[in-house]
Amino acid sequence: MPPRHVRTLAAALATAALALGAAGTALATGHRTAPQSSAAATAPAPTALGANWYAAAPYLMPLDNDPPDAGAVMDATGLKAFQLAFILAPNGGGCSPTWDGLHPVASDTAVTGVISAIRAKGGDVSASIGGYNGTKLGQACGTPEATAAAYQQVIDKYGLKALDFDLEEPEYENTAAIHNEIGAAKILQQKNPGLYLSVTTAGTADGTGWFGKQMLNEAKSQSFVPDNFSIMPFDGGFNGAAAQTSALTNFNAVLRSTFGWDEATAYAHEGISQMNGRSDTGEFFTQADFQTVLDFATSHHMARFTNWSVNRDRQCTPPDNNGRTSGTCSSVPQDAWDFTKFSVKFAGATPPTTPPTTPPPTTPPGGSCAASPYSAGTVYVGGDTVSSNGHTWKARWWTQGEAPSTGGSGVWQDLGAC
Predict the structure, then answer these.
(1) Which contacts (CB < 8 Å, 24+ apart) does range 327-333 have?
(2) Which of 16, 193, 264, 411 has the fewest CB atoms lying closer than 10 Å?
């Protein structure tokens, strides 16, 4: 069964509300929307972030599912990037980008405000295209060029440095739509140098299903390679981490056979998108499962580690630890933002503690190392060494802005403590 991401109810309510008019929409869906002005607001330019943060960005619905305050999440976890969901075609038809099929990007001020608040704290966002519900622009726009032009509006509106193509049912069963989406992604990649692109699709026990493999073959036929292809191993009998890591191993084999990559190259282009807590089909993924998958991802130098969603990363009130799946809580015992902190770890940062578990160092980390301290603004090439957090690190290939860690893209090799 393809992943539903706990959006079915919200989408149904939104569709019903649309029929009742704009006032009914706000009432029925509970969207927290700011008044729309005729002059569209513009978000400030993003802070330069390393690709490791876009690779770790968890999903956040900014207009639905009781969105939490992104700044508060950043303060509590150390997170620097969010994956905002979802860009769709208008519910009433057409080839222009909207949030959730309801809110035109062109006149948006509400999401602009969310992005501005995140960037004011030194963070950034990626926008996610598609998802499980609604009409996708690949279905509504007639060609790859028209589809790309719609997405370019989103990039230009928000000054985006990253974009996620979430290609799921029923869109990925439509060969014309997938041709448009992959073609659009390739156009955007060429038109926006340095744009971070992820492609997310359904996960199965053997990695991904027939339509997922068809999508990969479409990418191969168009000579398109994104920063990563990610699978969603949930909603299909994946209870627990062992089933997920098995699917990741099998997906690695799919990538190797499709693109002719070796195992390491395939892992360097492979990602995972999990569902925290209780899934739509009653599977459970706990903090311990996330830790196991994180260990697998970092040890295999995988390219991405994300989850659905920040909106769900809190305990239900009253606690409901097995009875329901919610878009606003996890249905497992947890402290707020427990699962988001795993994304921070994958990005190579240490989540803050309150109070700190250890006193702050009296000398800067890496101060006794022979190698020069890491600098985010410096370009490093393969073989360059730096010091960071008391360890010496060697770059495997060209990099800039990705802090040394054992996660992220895998560009840094830990040579040990100084």
Answers:
(1) 327/6, 327/7, 327/9, 327/10, 327/61, 327/64, 327/65, 327/66, 328/65, 328/66, 329/277, 330/276, 330/277, 330/278, 331/277, 331/278, 332/276, 332/277, 332/278, 332/284, 332/286
(2) 193
